Amino acid sequence: MLQAQDATPPIAQDRQGGILTLTLQREASRNALSEEMMAALQAALEGAASDPEVRVVVLRASGAVFCAGHDLKEMTAARAQADGGRAYYTDVMGRCSRLMQTIVTLPKPVIAEVGGMATAAGLQLVASCDLAIASDTARFCTPGVNIGLFCSTPMVALSRNVSRKQAMEMLLTGEIIDASTAREFGLVNRVVPEAYLGQVVAKYAETIAAKSPLTLKTGKEAFYRQIEMPLAEAYDYCAQVMVDNMMARDAEEGIGAFLEKRSPEWTGE
Description:
- InterPro entries: ClpP/crotonase-like_dom_sf, Enoyl-CoA_hydra/iso, Enoyl-CoA_hydra_C, Mitochondrial_ECH-domain.
- One of its GO terms (molecular function) is hydro-lyase activity.
- The N and C termini lie far apart (about 50 Å).
- By secondary structure, the protein is α/β, with parallel strands linked by helices.
- The longest helix has 20 residues, at about 85-105.
- It is built from 12 helices and 10 strands.
- It has 2 domains: about 5-210, 2-enoyl-CoA Hydratase, Chain A, domain 1 (Alpha-Beta Complex); about 215-260, Orthogonal Bundle (Lyase 2-enoyl-coa Hydratase, Chain  A, domain 2).
- Strands 1-2-3-5-7-10 form a 6-stranded mixed beta sheet, with helices on both faces. The protein has a 4-stranded mixed beta sheet with strand order 4-6-8-9.
- Helices cover about 50% and strands about 15% of the residues.
- It has helices spanning about 5, 35-50, 70-75, 85-105, 120-130, 150-160, 165-175, 180-185, 195-210, 215-225, 230-245, 250-260; strands spanning about 10-15, 20-25, 55-60, 65, 110-115, 115-120, 130-135, 140, 175-180, 190.
């Protein structure tokens, strides 16, 4: 029995200034996205969305594995149900999809700090974040094809980060790629020595947290909406976003501060 581990929350939360760090801490299960883990992450992200003090969210993990994807023991146990697990799998996949979309629609930037292996839905978690910084020891793969289960939902996030050929290479072979290849593919922004991973992520988070929260919210939402639009529609939409943004107090303050050569004072309005 793992009573001591079960008594520990699946994620640890730590807020320093405007930066909220969420740490997956289920090393024994390779930080798998169990029902408990997904519920905890969902609640933490929803809390961050409504907390005006939070400017940036950092998602990291303890141990050698960032996240091993879905909990296959839970998934296998569900086969004993009368319907063979269909209702359970439908529910779990729905929860996971909701979690990934929550990251994308969160009005605060989310940075993945990847210090270990990220596989299947764990890779999906990384790909769903706005930025991803990896250590030089990090590894990535979508290995579902090796066990007869194509990584279809991870494919959604993966194919929106890397080219089609690279996505299909990962999905069809199930092979592990190293951090430098992940950077070449566009899955992560930077690869840094393991010893400096936390420092580099902190620098990114601090830089972003110093910006206007309204501007960050506006820009993140606009980015994900326009990326799926035809070119002309995207320009029409983003032109209106710029107009609305220009009318905001923070834009007036930021431009004024720039012209007056002083630091801006953001109000989030």
